[in-house]
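Why do we care about 3D structure at all? Because function follows from shape, and shape follows, mostly, from sequence. That is the central idea of this module. The next example makes it concrete: a single protein chain, its amino acid sequence, and then its structure expressed as tokens.
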Amino acid sequence: MVGLFVLHSTLAAGLLEIEREPINYKTTPVHDRVQRLMQKLADGTVSLEWDEKLGWLPSVLRQLDVPASSQTLVFSKTSLQIRRITPARPRAIYFNDDTYVGWVQHGDVIELSAVDPVQGGIFYTLKQRKIGPPRIVRDQGDCLTCHASSKTKGVPGYLVRSVFAADDGRPHFGFGTTTTDHSTPFEQRFGGWYVSGTHGKMRHRGNAISRVDRTNPFDPEKGANITDLSRLFRVEPYLEPNSDLVALMVLEHQSQMHNLITSGSYDCRHAVHYQKIMNRALDRPVGYETGSTRNRVVSAGDKLLRYLLYCDEFELKSPIKGVSGFARHFSSLGPRDSKGRSLRDLDLKRRIFRYPCSFLIYSKSFDKLPAPLLAHVETRLIRVLRGEDLSGDFQHISPGDREAILEILMDTKPGFRAKVNDLE
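And the structure:
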């Protein structure tokens, strides 16, 4: 829901792999947060309330437990309802740990997506009309035009893109685009987005209209350290007057974290599926594992672990601060260990989080990783945190932080302490 313009050949190649065994993306039953809401609406245990200004949006956010303070605003024409998006009418995106909601002024639909613990990102729409009961419909492939490509690690997933947007919102694609995450240099982020918050001497591409000039496409000073967006567009139609900087940075991290979890899961499932076929064909034992299968599992697991532990994270040169209640709400969700520490504690001075280990390690998607992949990731994670794995990838984690992260996980992640003890 946060990107556009993917070559159809890439999409076709990706879909070929997800529509058959062992993935069966469209036919496998899913159990994500939006699907559960659909079931509740169908059996009448919940209902949505219509808002004359915002349609189903406020009620949908409440039912999906998505905070309004997570609001981020994108004004580039890089999503489904491009005709309705301009710098004067940006698209709003709201999110929690596993669910995303997109809303456009006078839009035809509300865009919804949620992460199924096994299948990854699942996409839906809800028509914005009061006539008849609200009906959420699962997407049949349109959303995957943007959300199943190399930019989403080759699986149905998410992306935040930084573009050079003209005064009507159209991107200057000739200037290039950037898919952003926690490793992206700050100066390359947020093109085509509104950004409310302070970031000191650092500069970004947000809050700025681009010129048709490759040598000097925009003035970064105009969009810097803005805390009041009302001078740029009418904020009254939105739930919040902000596009919070901290929310944007969390969104960047978690979007690609979701993709890597799904990508690792798919890759491992494909490897194991092919291994089973070959074992039957060659009359080998059921549990026989070739070196190539093990290498695929290790490769997928190592990529996931590097991102989980914020390898290559961009080091902040100035403190950052948002202007909404997002940071406070996000950190309050815990869980916290016996010393009051949490992987959701924010730093915002040198890096995003106080402890460099992703909060999505608590997600159902992480816990539902295929057994060989999960075992590899957790085993190597424990060895890194105990100081036994000192490879160059993880030198950014100080001994004190390794110890703290290990203690936090043993206190707060069910079953993790036993896994640590089993490796003694």
